[in-house]
Amino acid sequence: MPAPTAAALDRIPGWFWPADQRLFAWFLSTGTQGDLLELGTYLGKSAVLIGGHLRPGESFTVCDLFELEAPDAANEAETTGSYSTLTRERFEQNYLSVHDSLPEIVHGPTSVILDHVKADSCRFVHVDASHLYTHVKADVLAARAVLREDGIVAFDDYRSEHTPGVALAVWEAVAGLGLSPICVSSQKLYATWGDPAPVQRRLLDWLAATPELWHTTDVLGERELVRVNQRKKPAPAGDLGELGRLSAELRRTAADLKKTAAESRTAVQNLKTATREISLAGPVVQRAVRWTRRHLTRRKAPV
Known about the structure:
This protein is of the alpha/beta class. It contains nine helices and nine strands. The longest helix has 60 residues, at 241-300. The termini are far apart. Helix content is 47%, strand content 18%. The chain is elongated. Strand 6 (180-184) and strand 7 form a beta hairpin.
């Protein structure tokens, strides 16, 4: 299958940022033969990219509840709140808009995936299903079971504030199940149950030759962890573009409003001061007027 273009991916709704698209493509283009698996596929944005790297003799499986009822109340609340528009039909439409045939689809909870995917058969697994700790922990164990020794697993939402269950399950696997992180982006953690060092070396060589991405290497206990993100493109000199022009106009408007507000506050303060002075001077003026009237009256009276 041909790798999809960025424009093709942009037409599909979902949260799959450019840095992760580049990392997926790199991981999927390297390594040995093996099958592909995605746990939680939403509307197919990442699945379309994964399917574009399917090699002859390999299989690609996606597993999602789609519109089915979740297996427990907490999962049902999560699904209803975040994925109410998800249907298998929409996923299939999006996938077939790029590829000629669908992947193997397991229409159900990820807890059944081991009934459909063989152990030690996958070279790449993407975990992006439930955010609840109990389910993510089970997905971690399923990923470990189906991955080959040198296979790669990518965990979505490993650090988001609204997904603490994912963070707990993933880092618990790092601390106690032998999972070795290779790199992280702002949204995903890429890891292996094999030796991460050779993969990291190849990844760093590739990143050094990929100007669209920036990277750094941090110490993670006795390990090293590569951090990757998209490099921001500077705006062309003298051409901010429509968004830049609108931003500049908004900044000018905000400055004008701030100046007007300051002038209004000054005017109000001056008015208050003048009013107070008039109030204080009122009795004095009234006494002066009465004295003047009495004085004039005495002068006009006949002798």
